[in-house]
């Protein structure tokens, strides 16, 4: 598979490393500061765009401010796109319309780690169980490196919103610092940004007698890169059209 990498930060470099190790080819690397061909040579904007158009799929990890425009540009080129950028989901309707009109494909996820997606299912099942026991309160937190631009993380939003939908006595998530006690129907889920932590997400169920803690801790970005490359292969393998999530990909792979 010939892959275009959109964004050449830490994730872009990790995707390049793993893709090459798996036998894929890097068609182009497109970044405001770095433009390369598969041979690794610096190139002009014109050549970069030509190289991009040879890709079987593109993997996009950039910034919230640029992600939607990047995805729509890829759609117009009919290049299947995978994006792990978060913070742009308020433009999902516009992006979906562009992808569908172009007859292209997009697979988006707030987190491509297979472990995180298993974690979601474990945590949500725990929420379904806790729903039957009102003595258990629920809350959580997430921690990421100090270069992360959005807060809360997209992973935290999916985790907490999935739990909220399964707990009848909870009606709202509070992401910010609380200068008061939480209301009985609120889930408090704050964020911490520090150091170089790839990502940690925790969900708690607490009663007067005990605490249940479910946590996923990423050790590196490798899991995200592996999942993103697998997502690109999934889009390309069946020449899929439309907008997909990693949940749909996993259900197809696991046959559930």
Short description:
The chain has 256 residues and is α/β, with parallel strands linked by helices.
Describe the structure.
- The chain is of the alpha/beta class.
- It is built from eight helices and 13 strands.
- α1 (10-21) links the parallel β1 (2-6) and β2.
- The model has no long low-confidence stretch (mean pLDDT 92).
Keywords:
8 helices; 23% strand; 4-stranded mixed β-sheet; alpha/beta; 38% helix; 256 residues; 7-stranded mixed β-sheet; elongated
Query: What percent of the residues sit in helical stretches (DSSP H or I)?
Result: 25-40%
What's the total count of β strands? 13
What shape does the CA trace take?
A: elongated
Spatial strand order of the main sheet: 3-2-1-4-5-6-13
Over all CA atoms, what is the radius of gyration?
A: 20 Å
């Amino acid at each position: 598979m010939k892959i275009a990498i959109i964004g050449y930060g830490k994730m872009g470099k990790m995707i390049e490393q793993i893709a090459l190790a798996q036998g894929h080819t890097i068609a182009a690397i497109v970044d405001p500061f770095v433009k390369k061909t598969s041979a690794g040579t610096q190139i002009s904007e014109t050549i970069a765009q030509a190289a991009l158009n040879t890709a079987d799929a593109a993997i996009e990890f950039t910034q919230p401010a640029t992600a939607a425009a990047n995805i729509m540009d890829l759609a117009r080129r009919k290049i299947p796109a995978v994006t792990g950028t978060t913070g742009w989901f308020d433009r999902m309707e516009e992006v979906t319309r562009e992808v569908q009109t172009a007859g292209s494909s997009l697979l988006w996820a707030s987190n491509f780690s297979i472990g995180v997606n298993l974690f979601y299912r474990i945590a949500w099942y725990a929420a379904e169980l806790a729903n039957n026991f009102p003595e258990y309160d629920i809350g959580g937190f997430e921690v990421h490196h100090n270069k992360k631009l959005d807060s809360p993380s997209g992973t935290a939003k999916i985790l907490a919103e999935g739990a909220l939908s399964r707990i009848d006595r909870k009606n709202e998530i509070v992401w910010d610092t609380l200068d008061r006690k939480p209301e009985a129907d609120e889930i408090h889920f704050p964020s911490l940004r520090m150091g170089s932590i790839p990502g940690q997400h925790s969900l708690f169920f607490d009663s007067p007698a005990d605490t249940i803690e479910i946590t996923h801790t990423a050790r590196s970005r490798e899991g995200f890169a592996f999942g993103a490359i697998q997502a690109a292969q999934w889009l390309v393998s069946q020449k899929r059209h439309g907008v997909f999530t990693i949940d749909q990909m996993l259900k197809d792979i696991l046959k559930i």
